[in-house]
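Entry 14. Structure prediction run on the chain below.
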Amino acid sequence: MSWRCCWLGWCCTLLLSSGQVAATGVLPAAEQPCVLVAHLNESADNVAGQQTQLPRWFDLHRRLLLLLTDTAGCHLRVVGSPWPRSLALLKQGQIDLMLTMSYTEQRNQFADFIGVHYLEESVLVLRKDLVAQVKQLADIRFLPGQIGVLRDAYYGEQFAKLAQDKQIQPFLLYANSLTQKLNMLKKQRVLGMIEDKTQFLEWSRREPALAADYQIAFILHQAPVYIVASRRSVPAPVRQKLHQAWQQVYAGQQHLAILAEFGWSLP
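Output returned:
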């Protein structure tokens, strides 16, 4: 096992394996080790080179990926980058795996949906004194400011349609990472944000003084989210092996234990 993390250039990488690779010689192509590069959504929002503490869910996501790749007999390398960039890299075949991907027909063109890893609930989090003004998402146009959303995230069909509405667009402020979105809230650049419910509960636990001013207005979207593999970079036989591995561990003791730590649930 080896670990390397360099924050100034944002190249947080992890290399773990479930088996040994020959120390000398060149293996035939058919026997080359399965090495997969996976994305975890966290950006280097550092100030003056100071290391940002990784949130607890980063480790839980990493452990879900390890559960999959170890079972499939593959090595895992994790890289951190903003969600929009990683989505583009997956499409280009420059990274192999991502988590928390909602299914859409468009994404299915470049991403093989390996399997569900938990049920995601997208909620609108608002300042408590503004909750009564917003009964549905379209009502954000009556707010005296904007709400934060993650760029290229999928929050359901209702949001996808409203995001194209020119009357709604001025009230949406896009962030490239979960950390950046939370920082916009801390700096009062937004009045609230669309967030995964478990993420809201997590930062509420970490930031009780901030959370005291906010609450969930309503659930916007609820759907299973998936671990996906790039159709471009991951060969079909390896993707099939990943499908089989996830079926083997899905809802098993290890999977459920990871979910329980973060309060996630299965569909």
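Residues 183 and 189 are 9 Å apart (CA to CA).
Filed with the rest of this week's runs.
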